[in-house]
């Protein structure tokens, strides 16, 4: 993302566990990032009507709208499709990881193996210019016989 004239890096953290969100938010803010927190995918979508974040940290299991539905929605909009997204989830099943990456997540991180410091350290690389390319592979194969 272009930060011309400002060093501010805006992050959107989508996490329904308030203790986890607080832990990540505090570290990211201490390291100089501007952080907004949404407790579910629908609230996060509403936040995107204003100034767009430079990077989104996204949980998968969320109330009201799960992380994959959120990711599909932002990827289908020309305004939001190129926002870099890093998934941070408790779930590490191969099909979930694969689906997240096909939907354009830069990385799929497992919370139990990821410290707030590691998230903060990755921001510089994850906020480099990004362009979402649709996957030629169908996103859902579970509907086929």
What does this entry look like structurally?
The chain has helices at residues 18-30, 41-47, 67-75, 94-102, 116-126; strands spanning 10-14, 34-38, 55-58, 85-89, 107-110. By secondary structure, it is an alpha/beta fold. It has a domain at 10-109: 3-Layer(aba) Sandwich (Rossmann fold). Strands 2-1-3-4-5 form a five-stranded parallel sheet, with helices on both faces. Helix 3 (67-75) links the parallel strand 3 and strand 4. Helix 2 (41-47) packs parallel to helix 3 (67-75). The model is unreliable at 1-5 and 137-145 (pLDDT under 50).
Q: Termini, distance in Å?
A: 42 Å
Number of helices: 5
The CATH superfamily title of the domain at 10-109: Response regulator
What is the ordering of alpha helices and beta strands? EHEHEHEHEH
Q: Which overall shape is indicated by the principal axes computed on the Cα atoms?
A: globular
Backbone structural class: alpha/beta
CATH arch. level architecture of the domain at 10-109: 3-Layer(aba) Sandwich
Characterize the largest beta sheet: strand count, sense, and whether it forms a barrel: 5 strands, parallel
Q: Can you count the beta strands?
A: 5
CATH level 1 class label of the domain at 10-109 = Alpha Beta
| CATH topology title of the domain at 10-109 | Rossmann fold
As a percent range, the share of strand residues is 15-25%
Average of per-residue pLDDT values: 89
Compute the CA-based radius of gyration: 15 Å
Unreliable stretches: 1-5, 137-145
Helix percent band: 25-40%
Strand arrangement in the largest pleated sheet: 2-1-3-4-5
């Amino acid at each position: 993302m272009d930060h011309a004239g400002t060093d501010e890096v805006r992050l959107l953290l989508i996490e329904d566990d308030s203790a986890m969100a607080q832990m990540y938010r505090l570290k990211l803010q201490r390291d100089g990032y501007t952080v907004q927190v949404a407790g579910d995918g629908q609230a996060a979508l509403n936040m995107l009507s204003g100034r767009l974040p430079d990077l989104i940290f996204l949980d998968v299991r969320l109330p009201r709208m799960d992380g994959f539905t959120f990711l599909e929605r932002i990827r289908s909009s020309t305004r939001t499709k190129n926002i870099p997204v890093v998934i941070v989830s408790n779930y590490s099943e191969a099909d979930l990881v694969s689906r997240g990456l096909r939907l354009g997540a830069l990385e799929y991180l497992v919370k139990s193996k990821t410290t707030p410091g590691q998230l903060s350290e990755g921001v510089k690389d994850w906020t480099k210019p990004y362009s979402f390319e649709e996957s030629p592979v169908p996103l859902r194969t579970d509907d086929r016989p």
